[in-house]
Design a protein that fits this description.
Keywords: Membrane, Transmembrane, Transmembrane helix. InterPro entries: Ser/Gly_Cys_C_dom (IPR026467). It comes from Nocardiopsis suaedae. The protein is mainly alpha-helical. The chain has two domains: 91 residues; 167 residues, no CATH class. It has a two-stranded antiparallel sheet with strand order 1-2. About 2% of the residues have low confidence.
């Protein structure tokens, strides 16, 4: 039977194996973003040609979910969808022809019946409603939309979240085991037992996570410099070619909750009711993002092809 002194060594080996894997994925993600970003800056056609569409801006600002929010806003303002007093969305069966995105919202509501905002946004996002916008901004050099880049970023996000969870569990167990040892009079050599092993694992995982912060202290995102500049220069009142075009564009830039805070949705209107639903969703998403570190931003939740090879 193994003695207690073996626990630190076992945890050190386990931690180093994970740390090596995590650092490799982190390095891969940073290298790909840097490589593709430099290609975009050197290559032709990185500057926008003509105005940027509402859904392209929405995707750059908040990924698939933001594009889905803009589509829902357009469907409601265009009469394709109605909002009950409790925030439930349902197909209205009326409305002038709109964009393909608004029509997709109406078709989904007509097919599946009344639904709340959050599950509707998830279905739209995973169903590919933002794929045309992603292809457009990728082609214009505003976004690194290659599957290879997005897969690397998604794997980096997953390994970082596992690392944060592992640190939390290891730290909590180390403290509990120290207190358990104190209750039995065994605190003198706690670092040679299970508590010491958990402490070793805690610090090894923390060192691996620190590498990501040192390599890229800012949020690592697939939006290029040109894309960030396009967002910064975006003029929210510039679109009026669709029903409620200005409001839809504002939702694309700020989200339903953000547009409501900016005073775009008067109290009691359908979009104001949806904004109240979206506010709770966005708050919980921000909480998870903050608690687990850099989760990679909102651009990794949409559909991707099978793992690419290069």
């Amino acid at each position: 039977m193994l003695g207690p002194a073996v626990y630190p060594a076992l945890m050190l080996v386990a931690g180093l194996v994970y740390a090596g894997y995590a650092v490799a994925l982190v390095r891969r993600a940073h290298a790909l973003v840097r490589e593709y970003g430099q290609e975009r800056e050197r290559g032709p056609g990185t500057a926008p040609q003509g105005p940027i569409g509402t859904y392209e801006l929405a995707f750059l600002a908040g990924g698939e979910r933001r594009a889905a929010e803009a589509a829902v806003a357009e469907a409601v303002l265009g009469g394709h969808a109605g909002v009950d007093l409790d925030g439930t969305l349902r197909a209205s069966g009326v409305g002038a022809p709109g964009t393909a995105e608004a029509s997709a919202v109406a078709a989904l509501l007509d097919r599946e019946g009344p639904v709340r905002l959050d599950p509707l946004l998830r279905r739209l996002a995973t169903g590919g409603i933002a794929l045309p916008a992603r292809a457009a901004v990728t082609g214009r050099g505003l976004f690194l939309g290659e599957d290879e880049v997005l897969w690397a970023l998604a794997r980096r996000r997953s390994v970082l979240r596992v690392g944060w969870l592992g640190m939390a569990v290891a730290g909590a167990l180390a403290v509990l085991l120290v207190f358990a040892g104190a209750a039995t009079g065994g605190t003198a050599a706690w670092w040679t037992g299970p508590a010491g092993g958990m402490a070793v694992l805690f610090f090894v995982l923390g060192a691996a996570l620190l590498v990501d912060r040192v390599v890229g202290p800012e949020r690592l995102a697939p939006v290029t410099r040109a894309g960030a500049e396009a967002l910064a220069e975006a003029d929210a009142p510039g679109a009026a070619d669709t029903p409620g075009g200005r409001d839809v564009r504002l939702v694309g830039l700020l989200g339903l909750a953000g547009a409501s805070e900016a005073g775009a949705h008067p109290p009691g209107t359908p979009l104001a009711r949806l904004a109240a639903e979206a506010e709770a969703v966005s708050w919980s998403s921000d909480l998870v993002e903050t608690a687990l570190g850099d989760g990679g931003g909102p651009w990794l939740a949409g559909p991707r092809t099978d793992r690419p090879t290069r």
